[in-house]
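Kindly review both lines to help learners:
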Amino acid sequence: MMRSSNNFKGYSLLMISLLLCLGVRSQLTTDFYAKTCPTLSSIVRKQVLSAIKTETRMAASLLRLHFHDCFVNGCDASVLLDGDNTTEKFALGNINSARGFEVVDAIKSAVESSCSGVVSCADILAIAARDSVLLSGGPTWRVVLGRRDGTVSSATQANAALPSPFESLDAIIQKFTNVGLNITDVVSLSGGHTIGLAKCGTFNNRLFNFSGTGAPDSTLEASMLADLQSFCPVNGDSNRFTALDRNSTDLFDNHYFKNLVDGKGLLGSDQILYSSDLAVSTTKSLVESYYKDSKLFFTDFANSMIKMGNISPLTGSNGEIRKNCRAVNS
C-alpha cells in the first residue's frame, strides 16, 4: 500500500532528524568527558606543567607529537604505538626525533587512576598540545574531544604524509591540502616552530652546497650563516641541536615570523614561506601579517590547531580506548 504524501513527508523528516542526531553525536565536543572524567583537564595540565618544568623543550615535543599524529591517518594516537620498523615511530620524520612518549605515558597513567578506560590517547595528545602552547606563553583554545584510538601504525603512510624540512613549498602546501588544511593553516601551524630545537641534519643542506650549487642557501642571513657553519661544520655531528626560533627559543610568540622576514628561518621549509618564488603569491603576505600582529597569529594558530585536531577522528564505535598508549588492546 502506498503512503500518503503527508505521511511520506513526515517519515522523511523523521529519518533526516535521526540522521542529524547521529551525525551530531559522532562529532567531537568540548564537554565529551564532563560526566565520565570531569577532572581530565586539570590532570593533564598538571602533568604537562611538570614535564616542561623538568625540560622546557618538552612543550615543543608534545606539540609536534600531536601534529605528526594527525597528519597520518587522522588524530588517532597511531604515532604512539610501539612495534617493529614498519610503525610510524620509524618514519623518517619521527625516528630519533619524535619524543615525549614517556610524558604521554605519565599523563595516561594519571588519567587512568581517576577515570579508568574512559579517555583516549588521541584526546590526551590534543589536550597536551594545547597546554604546551599555553604554558609557553601562547594562546589557548577549547579542545574538542571524543576521539578514539586507532589500531594501525604505518611508517610508509607517515613518510608519504608528513611534511619534510627539505621539501618545496608547493609540496608542503599539497600535504596540508591532502588533510583538508589550507594555506593559512600552513603558515600559522609553521609558527609552532617559535619553540623547540632542530638537529644540524635538518638544515645543514643549506650551509655549504645548497641544491648542488657549491654555495650556501642565498636566503640565509650572513651572520646566522656564519654561526651555523661553525656550529654544524662539514662532516660534523648532525645530531647537535640549535633553536628553531633564534633569540626567542622557549617563548611562544610571533618572533619566528620576524626571523623569516630577516632571513633567519632555520629550516628550509621555514624560510621558503617568505623567500621562495611561490611564497609571493601564497604565504609571504601571511608571514608579514603575523610578524606585525601577534594577536592575529595567536587567533589563526588556535583556529588551525582546532582544524588539525578534527582531521579524520575515529568516533562512536570505531577504534578503541587504549589501556596503554603504546599498544593496541589485546
User: Anything to note?
Assistant: The first strand starts at residue 197 and ends at 199. The CA atoms of residues 227 and 307 lie 37 Å apart. Strands lie at 197-199, 241-243.
